[in-house]
Amino acid sequence: MVGLTVSLPVKWEQFLKHLADDHKVDLNTVVSELCEWAFSDLESKEQFKDWLDETYPPKGEAEDEARAAGEAAAEEEEREEESEEESHEHRD
User: Fold this and answer.
1) What pLDDT does residue 15 have?
2) 20, 38, 40, 69 from 34: Cα distances, Å
3) What is the 3-state secondary structure (H, E, C) of 1-44?
4) Who is most buried in 21, 30, 56, 79, counting CB within 10 A?
5) What pLDDT score was predicted for residue 78?
6) Quick one: pLDDT at residue 24?
7) Which residues touch 12 (CB under 8 Å, ≥6 apart)?
8) How far is the C-alpha of 44 from the C-alpha of 10, rounded, in Å?
9) Sign of CA dihedral 23, 29, 34, 40
10) How confident is the model at residue 77, as a pLDDT?
């Protein structure tokens, strides 16, 4: 087992600590068993990985997405400016 420090949201920490106390085991054991249960099959692992990738994209992907979004915004702004210029030309 790997020693790891994890911050849990308060409501989950209280819930899990209460369960641990009820079963006379420490909180680390409860969290470890919870992970073991949650990731005990391939489908669960894949679902979690997909969720994590979508919610917190890997660093390279996040940078690529931010760059693409910036480029798309710049292109849109350029199109709007061109459209405004054309409408001003038609009015004159």
Assistant:
1) 95
2) 11, 6, 10, 38
3) CCCCCCCCCHHHHHHHHHHHHHCCCCHHHHHHHHHHHHCCCHHH
4) 30
5) 79
6) 97
7) none
8) 25
9) negative
10) 80
In single-letter form, the type of residue at position 19 comes to L
CA separation, residue 60 to residues 6, 50, 63, 70 (Å): 25, 16, 5, 15
Residues of the chain predicted below pLDDT 70? 1, 61-66, 88-92
Residue 66: the pLDDT is 66
Torsion region of 66: left, alpha or beta (phi above 0 gives left; psi -120 to 50 gives alpha): alpha
Predicted pLDDT of residue 61: 66
Residue identified by tokens 């068993």 is 33
In which residue are the tokens 């940078």 written?
63
**b/e per residue, 27-63, with b = 16+ CB within 10 A?**
beebbeeeeeeeeeeeeeeeeeeeeeeeeeeeeeeee
Token pair of 21 as six digits: 């106390």
pLDDT at 45: 93
